[in-house]
Amino acid sequence: MEFTAQIMADIKESDEHGKMSSITSHAYDTTLAKHHPWLIRKAVHVAVYTLPKRQHLLEKMKLHDEAEAKEYLGKAVTLQQDLFRVIEDIYAKEKLLDLP
């Protein structure tokens, strides 16, 4: 959830020519990379170069207008971040964050 929220935030903040490889790499590096060994991190960085363009993703999401996309993505980010915090609180309460 943290990863997808970060991707949506980075897509929202990028311009219409932003590269999904850069956006996704940044989101991965700031969220999931800390949980993965070196080999997985490198594989992810290679795999992100197969992603379609930012505009193609927005079209698949039925967001054709840049202003509409930024508004929708902003709302999605807020909801995902709220949900992530709720889940993290539950995991912390149940002592599930430090499992091997």
TrEMBL record:
Q: Which InterPro entries match?
A: GLTP_sf, Glycolipid_transfer_prot_dom
Glycolipid transfer protein domain sequence ranges: 1-62
Specify the protein name: Glycolipid transfer protein domain-containing protein
Name the Gene3D superfamilies on file: Glycolipid transfer protein
User: Can you name the source organism?
Assistant: Tegillarca granosa
Residues in the signal sequence = none
